[in-house]
Queue: 2 jobs
Job 1
Amino acid sequence: MGHLFVPGPVDVNEEVLAAQAQAMMPHRSDKFEEIFDRVSKGASKLFLTEHRVFITASSGTGLHEAAVRNLANESVLSCVNGAFAKRWHDVALSNGKKVDLLETGWDQPITPEIVSQALDGKNYEIIILVHNETSTGLVNPIKEIAAAVHEASPETLICIDAVSSLTGDRVEMDNWGLDMVLTSSQKALALPPGLGFAAVNDRAMARAETVDNRGWYFDFLRLEKHRIKDSTPATPAISLIYALDLQLRRIFEEGLDARFARHAAMAERVQTWALERKLALFAPEGYRSKTVTTIDNQLEIDVVELNAFLQEREMRIANGYGPLKNKTFRIGHMGELQLADIDELLLVMDEFLAR
Ligand code: PLP
């Protein structure tokens, strides 16, 4: 069977796909509420939090909007070193917030030092930043940044995009003191696209009570009112919830630590291979992603041709994203993929490079 080595949507296990085909049931029913209760509790474990997780019928970008709408009346510090952080910045602006931009080069991490400087003498309601930048394959040091925020500006809520890292790399919401962490279903969780997950702590819920114009669909207070009754304000994506129920069971069978280790091993294999082929990695050492590797295309490989070659073998990688298109290419190593799949891909990549 072929594989998608792209950073989402990724391969979904066949039984998980099939779980979606179960018959519908009313969502206002004991049976569905029992499933929703189970998946909600399971979702909290993925974020390593004791707090609630809202499961929404949306992709992750919807929760970018939820973060800025619910947690800030006005002031946002937005940290940008990649395309998805830039998107969150644009989302904040388009919701009328006053947004200050803290930007580094896309090949450089956001560091605790520059965050401390940006917070000095300011009183931002929230700071937004991306853990694992899917465009660049760069991981920002969230644990250390969070410690810097707690020190410099304890009232500022920390909102993290873990879209392409959750369950592929460690994100410890409670231990690191993160107030909101969001993700999507179609990345390391290895589900079809269409579910958003927002883990929100009590401090963030208290803030939401003080914020005007939170909107309707993603209003945390409305979501909470229904969540405590194992329900949602609007119709949930029932088929995807069936799939999530099974996938959570599979994830816990593997074990979160084993899952992190498998992703780390795949990242190591891809990154070592690239360096051995004298291909440069876009992200600096120490900040390289466990779920996606962005490789500088200094050999000027025709990425379209490479993908056509791979697709003859039912494999696919991803071109660079946005301004990095053709200048880089990306290998996704997340979700259901195993080391043996990575080895198979790299053999075919070698075959292409040797032509
Ligand atoms: N944030 C990151 C880091 C992403 O990689 C993506 C999508 O690739 C998004 C946000 C947007 O998520 P979605 O496509 O689920 O809206």
Note: The longest strand covers residues 52-57.
Job 2
Amino acid sequence: MEWKHRHVLDLDTWERPDLQHILEQARSMDELLDRPIKKVPALRGKLVVNLFFEASTRTRVSFELAEKFLSADVVNWSASGSSTGKGETLRDTAWTLEAMGADAVVIRHGAVGAADYLARKLKKSVVFNGGDGAHSHPTQALLDLYTAWKKIGPLEGKKVAMIGDVLHSRVARSDIIAFSKMGSSVVLSGPATLMPRSVEALGATYDENPRSAVRDADIIYLLRIQKERQDEGMFPSLDEYHQLFGFDAALLKHARPDALVMHPGPINRGVEIASDVADGSQSMILGQVRSGVAIRMALLFVYLGGVRQ
Ligand code: CP
């Protein structure tokens, strides 16, 4: 297939064959992860800069591992200790790194549109969005699709119940788009104060009652309650949130015994998810982490490996 996307900024313009192609590529990369020696020379001589303005464990480490497994040269840049502290702009930082030969830049930034801005300013580097504000987290959505697809096969006709803070979640937005494009239906649940104004415009439906939302769901996707939003009075307390919407063994009984339980991490144990569910047999959380490496390898290979098909 002809690969028409120049960067990975969001999934809005991706079509199902694009998503499917990356899933297939990720499956090949996943096989590499089981080998005693995981390194292949696919990206030898390519330079990737990881530009993280916000905290991250999974995205940052999995991109770095993916780059190293594909033999790229890797530079990990972080805002602390950089010339950002002296007032250097994002554009000048990016131009500086591109002048040093960066073939790709992975960026996580708190500002909506930061990855898109970088893509417009850079002349040759490929930009991978590792999360921009509450807008988009496309590689997370791809790894979530891959995790589900690997476990249950084609996602057409599947039901995803997504519970939690949709309003502030870049993961929610990207996942709703990605699962919908694969033919799944998405029902959102959680306090109405944590829902976007127009759920339907996102391609989802809303059911305030989590018990009915999870019924018949193939995938139950829990979102992190952003404790930093507590001051905004979106719900009375974390305890009350857990009582009403926290996914625990009692709520799990309303779901199918084979439903997949997913969460992008980091998890708040005892808030949006109870430990017995997070660590239980239906949990895919650590599988998602592994998928993160395979998906990022697939993306790096498709965009930098020179074989765009
Ligand atoms: N899911 C996710 O983006 O996790 P990190 O913030 O640890 O990268």
Note: The chain has a mean pLDDT of 95.
